[in-house]
Amino acid sequence: MSRYIAGTEHIPCFGSALATPAVIAHRGAADDAPENTLAAFKLAWQQGADGIEGDFHLTRDGEIVCIHDADTRRTAGRGVKVAEATFAELRRLDVGCWKGEPWRGARIPTLGEVLATVPAGKRVCIEIKCGAEILPALKAALAGSGLQSEQAIVMSFDPNVIAEAKRLLPQLKALWLTDFKADPATGVQPTATEILQTLEKTGAEGVGCRAHPVVDQAFMQTLRTAQKEVHLWTVGDVPTAKRYLELGADSLTSNRAGWLKRQLCGEPGLPNRTSIRASGDFR
Description:
The chain has about 280 residues and is of the alpha/beta class. It has one domain: TIM Barrel, CATH 3.20.20. The protein has ten helices and 13 strands. Strand 9 and strand 10 (about 185-190) form a beta hairpin. It starts with 10 loop residues before the first strand and ends in an 18-residue tail after the last helix. Residues about 1-20 and about 265-283 have low confidence and may be disordered.
């Protein structure tokens, strides 16, 4: 049984006295391949990511599909609303050609297809982009996936979704997602204390938040004292990554996770964007 529990095991760097948090591939290897496709997820694994992050919606006929936006215009060129479409209708759309001709023919994957790519000892971060109505189907998909419970993390910006996820799937780790807003009168919101209140109310094990200057030593201490985790997105450069590494972040999400991990750990070269083409399977 896998004991790779997200946020509790840090990876030693080769040739470095530092240790890195897990590096998670944001929407897969999104810099190199079309986001939220099997191509992007498979490439992320080849490039050495510790985990993948994907966005999930529920279709009209009850299928969970991996796509960020509520409609398909940005990645498919046609504005089909995911919640109002059947899976068969969505599956006909090409969500790869916008990234370049090599990716033409990529399709919107199901949650089950994404879960099937996850190797032993790796993890998948499931960001719910709709409401709690997705959770029964999510529970069924995870039960049939063969993954250990510690390999999956549920995330949402909606506290109500997180609370319901913890009720329905108590064995899964859940993260409440939040961004920060600067207010001239009150400063940056939410504060660490406000975040902690939401985590305690929902039962979430931690927060996933934007990499922002407000996440400093005092911020981390507030959450660490309460035994809550801190995960940062979206980190694309080494100095920022090292700053959060030193603060003790539990994971860093990046559009180029493989590259970032190699920079931090000095790992040998891993496959680049073209290597996945040899498989002939990115749909």
